[in-house]
Structure formats: structure tokens, C-alpha cells
Design a protein that fits this description.
Layout lengths: L1 H25 L11 H16 L4 H6 L9 H8 L2 H28 L15 H21 L2 H20 L3 H18 L7 H11 L2 H8 L7 H19 L10 H8 L14 H34 L5 H17 L9 H12 L11
Helix pairs in contact: 2-13, 4-15, 5-6, 5-7, 6-7, 6-8, 6-14, 6-15, 8-14, 11-12, 11-13, 13-14
Length: about 375
């Protein structure tokens, strides 16, 4: 209930922001949205609508399309983000990270079994909390690592709290996403240091608590119950995509169709398939999956190229977004974070910001 209220409030605020942005565009007070990212995003929306209209239950599927309104963040971000607004966004993000991390760390300290009662922070579910914290923390780490030294200190405390929250949250996908983001930062700043990763992994093995190492090792343990369940979900999702290859079963219908495709020892009910690629392929077909991969691919190529020669004010933003999208996309192989409203909002902003002009003179 609380989650629905928060999402409804966020949608109302987003609608008002979109209305004000449209007025600014008409009056010439905002830049026209541009950027290659707009093409695959628009394609994803079109495929989603077609998938809903041609599904076995169009009435139900169409009601699931309301989330597409959130995609307005993409042209809005490419139109509005500049140096001043990005700094304000990072300040606001820092404040929320600090508050939510303090809540989460307090929850962690007050429970006897942190794995059975994982921290949720200000969210209603620990996966939403870890996904949102992952994206926000990697954006802040981009500022810490690549902003001028004096300015980077501002972001150090919230970023450190975010890292601590992710580590103690015991969410394996978030750990993998955090590691991916950090490796991307190394690949850009000090690519030769990547050869030291085996040494760093060995040091972590001895430095981290045994409980955390056991939790990490369970990711590839086929005897782990959660790992087995995800394998069953992947198989069911791939079978759905095989039977409905072009447009999938339709938005919102994977949960219903799962009953026909699940194996006998799989969980009887699921909210989703815990994997972005498999969920999108099953729900919106290989056409939808192609547009999703197109969004990630267009972003990655653009951000990687521009991170090399971007002006100093823009470089921390671009690399931070690259770290955030790399992290959340990798984590998406273990959790369907593309469909989590709270995570999706910060993800879409991160996907779009590197396509903005980011004029350093507008500080």
C-alpha cells in the first residue's frame, strides 16, 4: 500500500514536471531533446504497445502500459540537464542516500538474522532498496573518483554510506553490480590495473567476514534454493519466448502464463522472472528484447567514447552514468530491476544524461 502511494505521488510529480517542460519547450526556454538514445527508447515503447494490443488479454496488458509514461524522463533529461542542474541532482541524491542508508543500517543492526530480515531503508522491499542504492551510489562514486579533488570530498560520505549499505545488505546481484561499476571506473582511469584484479579478489577473500564470502559463493552454488529457483524461472521464460517469439505473451501476463511453463519443483507463483533479458523476451518478445539491448548498446557506445575526451565538468557525470548503467544492467541478470519503478527512474536519468549538451558555461 505504501509503495503504491509513493509510486502514485512520483507519477503525479513526473506528470507536473513533464507539463512544465512542455510549456518551456513551446516558449523556447528549454532545448529540444536530441540524442541517439531517443530512437531505441521510442522503439521500446512502440513494441510494448503492440505487444499489449496483440496479447491474449489486451485489456489486462494495456493497463500495464502506464509505466511507459516514465520514459518521458529520457527526452526531458537530454533537454534539461546542464552542469548546474546535475550538481543539484547529485546533492538531492546524496541527501536521500544518507537518510535511506542510515535507516537501512539501523534495520541491519536491530535484527538477529540480517539475511532473513534484510534492510529495506525507505523502500518496501530489499531488492528495490538495493537496486536504487546501487545506481545512486555508483553515480556518486563517479563524482568521487573523477571530479576535481576538492569537490570530490563533498560526495565521499554519502558514497561511502551507500557502499556500506550495499555490502551489508547481502544482495548478491547488488554486489556484482557494484563490482562491475568499480571495474568500469578502473578500465577508464587505470586500465593496466585490471591485471591486479585476481590479487584484489584474493585479499577480499581473507578480509571480508566468512558470512559474506559464503553468501557470495552461493551465487554459483546449484544447491542454493534461490539459485535453483532462478534457473527454473529462466527455463520457463525462454520457453515462453520460444512459443511467442516476436511480441511475447504481453505486458503483465508472464505471472499468469508461468503456471503453464513452470517445472514441478519450481515455486508455484512468482512476481517476475528475476532477469531483465529473460523477462523482456518472455513478456515483449525478441522484438522487445532487441530494443532493450539497443538502449543499453547505444548508451554504452556513446558514454564510452565521450568519457575519453569530455571536458572536466562533464567527465564525472558521464563516467558515473556509465558505472551506474553497467552496474544495474549486470545486477539485472539476477533481478528484474528494469521493471522496478523506483530503480527505473534513476536508471532512465543515468541513461539519458550523457546525451545532454552539459554546457559548462551554464554553471
Amino acid at each position: 500500500m505504501a509503495s503504491s502511494i509513493k509510486i502514485a505521488l512520483a507519477n503525479i510529480l513526473l506528470g507536473l514536471a513533464a507539463l512544465l517542460w512542455a510549456v518551456a519547450l513551446i516558449r523556447g526556454l528549454a532545448r529540444r531533446p536530441r540524442g541517439a538514445i531517443l530512437i531505441p527508447v521510442a522503439s521500446y515503447a512502440i513494441i510494448s504497445v503492440l505487444s499489449a494490443l496483440l496479447s491474449a488479454d489486451p485489456r489486462h496488458s494495456v493497463t500495464e502500459l502506464a509505466d511507459l509514461c516514465t520514459l518521458v524522463l529520457v527526452p526531458m533529461t537530454t533537454s534539461l540537464v546542464d552542469r548546474r542542474r546535475w550538481r543539484r541532482l547529485m546533492i538531492a541524491l546524496s541527501i536521500v542516500v544518507v537518510i535511506s542508508s542510515i535507516f537501512g543500517l539501523a534495520q541491519h543492526a536491530l535484527v538477529a538474522d540480517p539475511l532473513q530480515h534484510r534492510m529495506r531503508g525507505l523502500a518496501d522491499h530489499y531488492m528495490t532498496f538495493s537496486g536504487w542504492t546501487l545506481v545512486a551510489t555508483l553515480l556518486l562514486l563517479g563524482q568521487v573518483f573523477f571530479a576535481p579533488s576538492r569537490r570530490s570530498l563533498v560526495w565521499t560520505l554519502p558514497a561511502a554510506l551507500g557502499v556500506a549499505t550495499l555490502l551489508l545488505g547481502l544482495t548478491r546481484g547488488a554486489w556484482i553490480g557494484l563490482a562491475t561499476g568499480l571495474m568500469l571506473a578502473l578500465a577508464i582511469a587505470r586500465p593496466r590495473t585490471l591485471i591486479l584484479l585476481p590479487l584484489a579478489a584474493s585479499l577480499l577473500f581473507f578480509a571480508l567476514p566468512r558470512s559474506m564470502m559464503n553468501r557470495a559463493a552461493s551465487t554459483i552454488d546449484l544447491d542454493d534454493a534461490a539459485s535453483r529457483e532462478r534457473i527454473h524461472m529462466i527455463r520457463a521464460g525462454l520457453e515462453m519466448a520460444h512459443d511467442h517469439p516476436i511480441l511475447g505473451v504481453g505486458p503483465g501476463l508472464v505471472q499468469l502464463e508461468y503456471r503453464q511453463y513452470r517445472s514441478p519443483d519450481a515455486p508455484p507463483k512468482i512476481p517476475h522472472l528475476h532477469n531483465n533479458v529473460v523477462q523482456i523476451a518472455a513478456e515483449r518478445g525478441y522484438a522487445g528484447l532487441l530494443t532493450y539491448l539497443g538502449i543499453i548498446g547505444v548508451f554504452t557506445v556513446h558514454a564510452w567514447r565521450t568519457s575519453r575526451n569530455a571536458p572536466p565538468p562533464a567527465r564525472p557525470m558521464i563516467i558515473g552514468c556509465l558505472m551506474a548503467i553497467g552496474g544495474v544492467t549486470t545486477a539485472g541478470f539476477f533481478e528484474y530491476n528494469w521493471g522496478d519503478a523506483e530503480v527505473w527512474i534513476v536508471t532512465l536519468v543515468s541513461l539519458s544524461a550523457p546525451f545532454s549538451p552539459f554546457d559548462p558555461e551554464m554553471a
